[in-house]
Amino acid sequence: MNRRELLLSGAMAGVAIFSEHVFAQSVGGKVIPWSDQPAPIPPPAKDVIKGLTPWEDLDSQITPNDRFFSIAHYNRPQIDPKTWHLNIAGHVSHPTTLTVDRLRAMPRQEVTFTLECSGSNGLPFFESGVGNARWAGASLAEILKTAQVRDDALEVVFFGADQGEEVVHQATPMEYKFNANFARSMPVSDAMSPVNILCYEMNGEPLSPDHGFPCRLIAPGWFGIANVKWLTRIEVVNSRFLNRFMGRDYVTIREEHRDGQTIYTETSVGRQLIKSAPARVVERNGRYQILGMAWGPKPIAMVEVKIDNGQWTKVNLAQSKSPFEWQAWSLDWSATPGDHSVTSRATDTAGTVQPAMDDPVITNKKTYWESNGQIIRHIRIA
User: pTM higher than 0.90, yes or no?
Assistant: First the structure.
């Protein structure tokens, strides 16, 4: 650990104020709405996105199920739990099939995890594709150990029941149409992480149909796309799995300049990136407080806020009880009447700083996935 990491980690070692306390401070106050409300969700995206809750309405550490966003890339299947089963097959020595009863009979494992869509903040209408929930289910690693993954296995592929038509061009004679199930893969070593669960419960309730009933993957630390819903099959393979959602869609394209040449890199969306967002401004008896959240692959050590074009100010940062959930922050603000901008940036315990919107890591990105630049919100104080 270098000096910067040591200093930042020390910033977390003070009085343990938890995120629930930060939200409690705003009880009884008046929420001042942001003046830059997101654009309406256009018709094509309305079929994909549900439950997108404005930031100023997310007023608790745990996001209620009815306010938690959901994404469906194909259909939203309605599954009968009495006939549902999950097959674990492929390069395993002991293929197995799980039913709802068998899955629930396994040792219960819980994790609180902030799930974020990798497209959040990448489009004008998509500003709050993130939520924090308590997820419960059975250990994926233990299930894979029981199936005995073979030594030559490379990836684990997760298939959902949702499906839709895909078209492959340059086929014989010109194109080929077929129905494909949604699927994503990850390396065997990542799938074997002890924190991954085959989830059947969200915030103490059975998963709803929109959130993957009766079973979904929860992979803490990964963007939402990896957390496959409506699971029906897990296949262990000995080659790279490439489909629309691994090789064509959810691919981040960046422009780079090397030795006087422009080149482009393409990477599949995977793990979460450091991020923070101003959530709401609360007024009580003429005093103002800014509240927000910060999260990422490592614990957040510091959050700073800039009002208009002023200096960065360190905020009060709460700790979280899970390493995978967001951390609430707050800043008392002596606001003056007029229009103002509020910008936040987070720094994690490894010293990684949330980039500005004019940072090359953001400006050189040509796709809207993985948009973790500093978020600027606008507000009018009467």
Answer: yes
Paired tokens of 175: 């194109």
For strand 231-237 and strand 86-90, is the pairing parallel, antiparallel, or unpaired? parallel
Q: What one-character-per-residue DSSP string does 263-307 give?
A: EEEEEE--B---EEEEEEEEEETTEEEEEEEEE-SS-EEEEEEEE
Q: Pull the structure tokens for residue 146.
A: 């029981």
Exposed/middle/buried for residue 329 (C-beta within 10 Å: 0-12, 13-18, 19+): buried
What is the number of alpha carbons within 13 Å of residue 305 lying toward its C-beta?
Answer: 23
Mean pLDDT computed over 333-342:
97
Tens-place pLDDT, residues 145-185: 999 999 999 999 999 999 999 998 876 778 889 999 999 99
Q: What gap in Å lies between CA 330 and CA 130, rounded to an integer?
A: 19
Report in angstroms the alpha-carbon separations of 120 from 184, 218, 250, 276: 19, 18, 12, 12
Residue 12 has pLDDT above 70, yes or no: no
Nearest-angstrom CA–CA distance, 116 and 221: 10
DSSP conformation class of 16? -
Q: Rounded to an integer, what distance in angstroms lies between the CA atom of residue 38 and that of residue 31?
A: 17
81 contact partners, CB below 8 Å, separation of at least 6: 100, 213, 214
Residue 16 banded pLDDT, cuts 50, 70, 90: low
Residue keyed to tokens 């079973």 = 215
Give dist(CA 124, CA 41) in Å, integer: 9
Instruction: For residue 277, give every residue at least 6 positions away whose Cβ sits within 8 Å of its Cβ, in sequence order, or none.
Output: 55, 121, 128, 130, 292, 293, 294, 344, 375
